[in-house]
Amino acid sequence: MVADDGTTLCPRCGVDAVIGDLPGDPVQSAAFLRAMHQEWF
Questions:
Q1: pLDDT of residue 38
Q2: How far is CA 26 from CA 7, 9, 20, 30, 36, in A?
Q3: What Rg do the C-alpha atoms of the chain give, in angstroms?
Q4: Model confidence, pTM
Q5: Tens-digit pLDDT profile for residues 16-33
Q6: How far is CA 38 from the centre of its chain?
Q7: For residues 22 and 28, is the Cβ–Cβ distance under 8 A?
Q8: What is the mean pLDDT of the chain?
Q9: Which three-class secondary structure string do you get for 1-41?
């Protein structure tokens, strides 16, 4: 989903906290996702 201003939104909940998942990015790590969640939510 994309907001009117071009911001990417989560298709499940509409939150504007979407991060990419290119191969090799740290997003593939559960530890990274936990750290991001603790920091921002």
A1: 92
A2: 22, 20, 10, 9, 11
A3: 12
A4: 0.51
A5: 888 877 887 777 788 988
A6: 13
A7: no
A8: 84
A9: CECCCCCECCCCCCCCCCCCCCCCCHHHCHHHHHHHHHHHC
Q: How far apart, in whole angstroms, are the C-alpha atoms of residue 22 and residue 15?
A: 20
What's the pLDDT at 6?
A: 85
Among the listed residues 31, 34, 33, the one whose alpha carbon sits nearest the alpha carbon of residue 20: 33
Residue bearing tokens 């530890």: 31
Alpha-carbon distances, residue 16 vs 9, 23, 30, 31, 32 (angstroms): 5, 22, 20, 21, 18
